[in-house]
Design brief:
The protein is α/β, with parallel strands linked by helices. The protein has two domains: about 160 residues, Rossmann fold (3-Layer(aba) Sandwich); about 170 residues, 3-Layer(aba) Sandwich (Rossmann fold). The protein has 19 helices and eleven strands. The strands form two sheets. A six-stranded parallel β-sheet has the order 2-1-3-4-5-6, sandwiched between helices. A five-stranded parallel β-sheet has the order 9-8-7-10-11, with helices on both faces. Helix 2 packs antiparallel against helix 4 and helix 14 crosses helix 17. It starts with a strand and ends with a helix.
């Protein structure tokens, strides 16, 4: 089976969808009788990433008069010309045809116009369920994407990253259950139990010592961080001093209420912003518990990664998060601020409360593998091919 996969999301700094795409394509390429062609190709990607890193320069400097001779201008201009040249060498319309490929895989939310049977990955439906948590442009873009999915008819199959999202796709998009396959994400290979003493070299530059409460994720409304900050603020000053709240994640859209709450909160909250990937395993291992009070998630990558390193998690009752967290982890209503404060307090005062899940975490996380996710993509591809009337013998040829 020959896949052509859109990899435009890999030209940008790593995100959850970017990690999913890279790891899934790697796992697909290891399945017998499966080949993967990436568009854009890997040798074009470094040029696109360079441009993404210097996007502010492109938007500002190139739009205004500058010096006639400039090394920076020359370098950026050369990168732009090389990228356009290489993109022309593999003509997109020719790649997305039965001559070169059997199935088109779209891991992001950007459909290519093609007649190929299509496997689309849906990571969540938050823009449909909670449009108030997203900018209008993003909502319009995703709604157009979902409309395009539905219009592909029987030649479409969908992969979701959790059973919770699968049920939403069937219910909200009206796609038949037989054409929606449950896959998964998986923890990165660096997420494993380690020596917390050696983790100090990563934590010290961040000004951290082990024993903090940790949240990992973009600072946006659906993460419910305003409630988390208020719940942590309810703790006694001595507990807050010894167990600070650490927020690791970039600034998101619509976080004004959170920022106002942070300004009024007591001392002890560390907003780290984006944290280098090399430090993330140590950041997980140094935490007393990962706290995830999200209103809504499609999967919950920080949860499975925390479990993989042998850490404890406390989550909301969101179905996808509970699915990933496992039955041995405590769940708290996302709207119950006193209950969240009680859970944080118990995590400090009752060391045995979370110990069982720490012991079970790596084994639970090992059920979630990229190989399992890739097999879900292959199953979906067979569904899309059958819907398009393409026989298995033709694909094998």
């Amino acid at each position: 089976m020959r896949f052509v996969a859109s990899t435009r999301c890999l030209a940008k700094p790593p995100t959850g969808i970017g990690h999913y795409t890279a790891e899934t394509l790697k796992a697909l390429s290891q399945i017998p009788d499966v080949s993967v062609r990436e568009f854009p190709s890997r040798w074009v990607r470094p040029l696109a990433r360079y441009r993404e890193r210097h996007l502010a320069w492109w938007l500002d400097t190139l739009g205004t008069p500058g010096p006639a001779v400039s090394l920076t201008r020359f370098r950026h201009s050369l990168v732009s010309r090389l990228e356009r040249f290489f993109l022309r060498q593999h003509d997109k319309p020719a790649w997305f045809t039965p001559r070169h490929s059997d199935v088109y895989l779209e891991p992001n939310h950007e459909l290519v116009d093609t007649c190929l049977p299509t496997v689309a990955v849906v990571h969540d439906l938050s823009v449909l369920r909670f449009p108030q948590w997203h900018p209008a442009g993003r909502v319009a873009h995703h709604r157009a994407f979902f409309d395009s999915l539905i219009n592909r008819g029987d030649s479409l199959a969908v992969v979701t990253v959790s059973e919770a999202v699968r049920q939403e796709v069937i219910r909200m998009l009206g796609i038949p259950a037989g054409r929606v396959v449950t896959g998964c994400n998986a923890p990165r290979s660096t997420m494993r139990p380690g020596n917390t003493r050696s983790d100090g070299r990563h934590l010290e530059p961040l000004g951290l010592r082990s024993g903090y409460f940790l949240h990992v994720g973009t600072l946006e409304p659906r993460k419910n961080l305003t409630l988390l900050v208020r719940a942590w603020s309810r703790l006694d000053p001595a507990l807050r001093a010894s167990h600070p709240l650490v927020l690791a994640g970039g600034k998101g859209w619509g976080d004004e209420e959170l920022q106002e709450t942070l300004r009024k909160a007591p001392d002890g909250i560390r907003n780290l912003g984006y944290v280098d990937e090399a430090a993330i395993p140590a950041l997980y291992r140094g935490a007393l518990a990962l706290v995830m009070p999200s209103h809504y998630e499609g999967y919950g990558m920080p949860v499975i990664e925390m479990r993989a390193v042998g850490g404890a998690v406390i989550t909301s009752l969101d179905p996808a998060v509970r699915e990933v967290a496992g039955p041995d982890t405590p769940g708290v209503d996302a709207l119950d601020e006193p209950a969240w404060a009680d859970s944080l307090r118990r995590a400090v005062e009752d060391p045995r409360w979370l110990e069982a899940q720490r012991q079970n975490g790596p084994a639970w996380a090992s059920r979630h593998t990229w190989a399992r996710g890739a097999q879900a993509v292959v199953r979906a591809a067979h569904v899309a091919l059958a819907g398009a009337g393409v026989s298995a013998s033709r694909v094998a040829a």
